[in-house]
Amino acid sequence: MSRSVLVTGGNRGIGLAIARALAEAGDKVAITYRSGEPPEGFLAVRCDITDHEQVERAFKEVEEKQGPVEVLVANAGVTKDQLLLRMTEEEFTSVVDTNLTGTFRVVKRATRGMLRARKGRIVLISSVVALTGSAGQANYGASKAGLVGFARSLARELGSRSITVNVVAPGFVDTDMTRVLSDDQRESILGSIPLNRYASPEEVASSVRFLASDDAAYITGAVIPVDGGLGMGH
User: Which residue of the set 33, 140, 198, 218 is catalytic?
Assistant: First the structure.
C-alpha cells in the first residue's frame, strides 16, 4: 500500500537518496527544501524548519495533496564548524535550532496524524559525530546527540500507538559536503574507517527504507550506524 511520506531536506545528498528509495518502494513522497530548484518526481514544498509557521504550511500542503504523513524522515540539517573558543553563540544556537529543535517541530506536527491513525514510522538522521565526537563540531555533535535522547524518549511515549521512532547515524558519506575535502583530509578519514571507503547515499537510504518498512515493525528506539565501523563501540 502506498503511504504518504515526508523527507525533510530531501532535495540533495542523503535526503534525495532516501526520497528516491521510498518512492521506488511504492510510497508517495514529499520533500522539503529551503532554496534552489527541487528535483523532479516528488511533491516539493519549500520550508525552513526553523520557522514554525513554515512547518505548519508545509504539512498542510502535503496533507491536502497526498494525505496525512505516515512516514517522516527528519533529515534536514546544517553545519557551522568552529573551534569552541572561536565559536559564537549564533553558530552554536543556529545549528541546534535547525538540527534538533527543527526536528522537534516536524516530528511534533507529524505525530498529530499518526496518533489518530494509531500507526506511523519516524526516522531521524543523526551522525557518527553524535557518538564519537569531532573537534570543531561541538555544536553539530550536541545537536545530533540530542536526537538520540529525543528519539528514545518518543519511542517510549508513542510505542503504545504503534508508532516507531528510530535513528540512523551515518558516518562519512560521498556527497557534495565531503567532496570539498582535500586529498590529505580524505586519506586521513579513510584510515580511521575499517571498511576503508566512504558510504554512498544509497547505503544510508537502504537502512532508512528498512526502518520505515513492515519488516521493522518491532524495532523502536534503535540507533543504526551506517559508518563502515567508524563508530563501533560507542
Answer: 140
Q: Which residues are annotated as a binding site for NADP(+)?
A: 9-12, 75, 140-144
Q: Which three cell numbers stand for residue 109?
A: 506536527
pLDDT computed for residue 146 by the predictor: 98
Q: How many domains is the chain built from?
A: 1
Are 169 and 227 in contact by the 8 Å Cβ rule? The answer is yes
pLDDT of residue 1: 67
- Residue 8, phi then psi, degrees to nearest 5: -80, 145
Q: Which residue has the cell 573551534?
A: 83
Residue at 36 is within a domain: yes
Q: What is the DSSP letter of 39?
A: P
Reference 196, options 172, 232, 175, 224; nearest CA is: 172
Catalytic status, residue 140: yes
Cα gap 139→116, rounded to integer Å: 35
Residue 196 CB coordination number (10 Å): 10
Which residue range is the domain that position 122 belongs to?
4-226
Q: Confirm whether 234 is domain-assigned.
A: no
Q: Which residues are annotated as a binding site?
A: 9-12, 75, 140-144
User: What is the average pLDDT across 130-143?
Assistant: 94
The CATH number of the domain holding residue 101 is 3.40.50.720
What CA–CA distances, in Å, run from 196 to 142, 192, 201, 206?
Answer: 26, 8, 16, 20
